[in-house]
Here is the input.
Amino acid sequence: MIMISLPYIIKKFIFFLHLGFILITLFGWHFYRPLGVLIPIVGSSWDLNNSRCLLSQMEEYIFEEPIVPGRITLYSRLIMWIDIGWFILST
Here is the structure.
């Protein structure tokens, strides 16, 4: 019988919340326009935090393993800026 510990379940739950937040930030505004406000907030937090995600830093501190390790890549930032442009042009 496989035993799954409570800390493991909590860790996976937090990781899925983070993944959900990523998806909501990128695509949520297509379905609910006010969510578009999240895009520049997340981008600003990356700029102010030396290209580090605040949620990933908290995961690393608590679980010693973030869902997105290291710094935010140029590719991720480019996707964010394209999404911001798309949001602005579609209003």
